[in-house]
Fold this protein.
Amino acid sequence: MFLEPIGLPDPLRGRTLVMAVINATPDSFSDGGRWLIDRSARLDLDALRSTARRWREQGADIFDVGGESTRPGAEPVAADDELARVLPVIAALRDDPELRAIPISVDTRHALVARGALAAGAAIVNDVSGLADPEMAAVAAEAG
């Protein structure tokens, strides 16, 4: 069975999509800290945009932005801290004329983060917890 994605631009419908992952966290298993300046909490948004443009040229269809590591043993992150990590990334992608048309997915288990990310310009919620936050389904329903 093929489910038609909701909210994706027509050029992305009916084919396999490539998702580029942007981990705005210091402890990701794959690229933790890649966008941090000197392991501080500040993100190097210029480097991130440059890499995102290259990924777009290489075929990325969606940017998946996460602010909490899901690696085994990772410390949980409070929703406010996660928002502080993902919102600047979403803003940087949305403010860039070369990137703003690419849909953004937010990888979160917190309804508060999903709601904030959607308001900032994300189009997709990627909840790996499977709706563990009882408010997440309502956030998704509100977003359409």
User: Anything to note?
Assistant: Residues 79-95 form the longest helix (17 residues). Residues 49 and 135 are 32 Å apart (CA to CA). The helical segments are 45-57, 79-95, 111-120, 136-143. The chain has one domain: 16-143.
